[in-house]
Amino acid sequence: MTSDVRRIFHLSDIHFGLEDTRALDWVKREIAVHRPHAVAITGDLTMRARHREFAAATAWINSLEAPVTVEVGNHDMPYFNPFERFLSPYKRFSGMKEKVERDLDLGTLAIIPLKTAVPAQPRLNWSKGWVSPSALESCLSLVDALPAGKRALVAVHHPLREVGTRGTALTRHGERALAELARRNVVGVLSGHVHDAFDIMEDTPAGPVRMIGAGTLSQRTRSTPPSFNELVWDGRELSVEVRNLEQIETQDMQIDDVPENALPPRGVGEPVAPVRQIPPIDPPVH
Question: Any idea which fold 6-253 has?
Answer without folding.
Answer: Purple Acid Phosphatase; chain A, domain 2 (3.60.21)
